């Protein structure tokens, strides 16, 4: 439980926390932009016959976004694990934000 609260290792400064949050926001914005581009190209009819989404388009977009987010989360978790393992191997102690 002590590792959960970061006991035994130095805590990041306010500037480091702000930088980490800014970086996370950039990553999320990039993910959102990529998801919109990919899912729109895959799911939306290019002729724009109607002003509203068709049911098939809505379902496709919903599934595409869910799969995209799941893949992004899985990759992020794996990268974070690798980063933590590299820190432990270098004697750094672990932690971090994974980005």
From TrEMBL:
Residues 90-99 have a biased composition (Gly residues). Residues 19-81 form the Tim10-like domain. One of its GO terms (cellular component) is mitochondrial inner membrane. Keywords: Chaperone, Disulfide bond, Membrane, Metal-binding, Mitochondrion, Mitochondrion inner membrane, Protein transport, Translocation, Transport, Zinc. This is Mitochondrial import inner membrane translocase subunit. InterPro entries: Tim10-like, Tim10-like_dom_sf. Residues 80-99 are annotated as: Disordered. It comes from the Eukaryota. It is a peripheral membrane protein.
């Amino acid at each position: 439980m002590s590792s959960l609260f970061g006991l035994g290792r130095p805590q990041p400064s306010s500037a480091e926390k702000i930088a980490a949050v800014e970086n996370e926001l950039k990553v999320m914005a990039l993910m959102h932009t990529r998801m919109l581009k990919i899912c729109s190209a895959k799911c939306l009819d290019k002729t724009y016959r109607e002003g509203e989404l068709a049911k098939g388009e809505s379902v496709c977009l919903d599934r595409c976004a869910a799969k995209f987010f799941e893949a992004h989360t899985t990759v992020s978790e794996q990268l974070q694990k690798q980063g933590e393992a590299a820190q432990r191997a270098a004697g750094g102690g672990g932690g971090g934000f994974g980005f």
